[in-house]
Amino acid sequence: MPQIPTLDLNKTAYVAIDLQDDILNAPGIDAAHRHAVLTANNQLADYFKNTGALIVQVTVNVASVQNLFPRREVTQPVTPNQAKLVMPIAIDSEATNVIKITKHNPGAFFGTDLDLQLRRRGIDTIILGGISTSNGVYATALDAYQNAYRLIVVEDACMDRDAEKHAFFFDKMFNRISYVTTTSDLLASF
């Protein structure tokens, strides 16, 4: 595994994908795994709080994503996003370096102003965690790679309802487009 590059926090964003109540409490996500992933993401957020790094809390409007499947009958109209971000940093009034992005697709770049927000701040490196490894996290990672961001994906800060899919993406996919690490190894590198 390649060594994590030296990071300039002023050019780094920590992006947390879909850590929201309706997804974390969905069927198929066990409490122990949910707790472990939230703990890892909260450690990252705590470390980056009020530093030069940007913390990006990404939420998905689940109702609008249903419209991506034209062959399915859509039973729920698109409504405003009702999901609540569950990480304390999302509502921390003392945190000065947090932004929120709502996405309507699997990835956090397409159809949002994420790329604009990052480029305005001179960010060239993304640290990525969240749910689901095989969907929102991978789609965002691939877009980040294609947009020439240096990417670090934190394995224990990610999860998928399907453990085999999670393992596949970390064993076969992420190492092709990013550095792969753990929360403890990443924080020890600073």
From TrEMBL:
Keywords: Hydrolase. Residues 12-184 form the Isochorismatase-like domain. GO terms for molecular function: hydrolase activity. The keyword Hydrolase applies. It comes from the Bacteria. It holds the Pfam family Isochorismatase. Belongs to the isochorismatase family. This is Isochorismatase-like domain-containing protein. It comes from Secundilactobacillus odoratitofui DSM 19909 = JCM 15043. The lineage of its organism: Bacteria, Bacillati, Bacillota, Bacilli, Lactobacillales.
